[in-house]
Specification:
By secondary structure, the chain is of the alpha/beta class. Helices cover 46% and strands 15% of the residues. The chain contains nine helices and seven strands. Strands 3-2-1-4-5-6-7 form a seven-stranded parallel beta sheet, sandwiched between helices. Helix 2 links the parallel strand 2 and strand 3. The termini are far apart. The model has no long low-confidence stretch (mean pLDDT 93).
Length: 251
Amino acid sequence: MKRFEGKVAVVTGGARDLGRAVAVRLAAEGARVVVNYAHNEKNAQDTLEEIRKAGGEAIAVKADVTREAEVKALFDEAVAAYGPKIDILVNVAGGMVARKTVEEQTEEWYDFVMDLNMKSVWLCTREVVKYMPAGGSIVNFSSQAARDGGGPGASLYATSKAAVLCYTRSMAKELGPRGIRVNSVTPGMINTTFHDTFTKPEARENLHRTAPLRREGEAGDVAGLVTYLASDDAAYITGTGVDINGGCFFS
């Protein structure tokens, strides 16, 4: 029997890269998946096509998960499609967007980055608990930057992702008595468009030479960890931030 047969999952930022890999993996293991996306409908439809090819079932819902009304509409659509029980929430939506030194950062930029990476997690968690039964699981996306402070110009990104780790632990305490587990993953160098955009080629080449596993991670590596944490195989794991970085230790 598939691990998520009869379960419903919502994946924010599910249209590409890590979110797509997670959505496809959950669907392949039996979950009915709500793929959230913010802007790119084509990416979302491509994700749905991959899910169908894997024998899964899913819908795509557009919503800016930094906005309360749109988050509520996202979960309203999920419930309308699959019923009033949501078993899994994976908060993937987020990003660095740009590198800015402290002198370059504005108040508007601060609000934007913190909303994108932390407020989105808070809004979606607050909404999903209305529908999540005992045995449910929330998996948040943090980052290795939360452990080491991030690279140049990534201070607010790293700080927002560190907030996700703390919020994960807080929610594990609050929701644990209701039988809901809350964990996070902290990816390091994963082969995605994030690092295509923000990481210099020489830094990636250096990792290939020095990382214990001599390679970057792949989206499927992260999806495997997320589906484990979401499953009953991890029934006694909550409040954790699991590093997935190929053994690249941080200061």
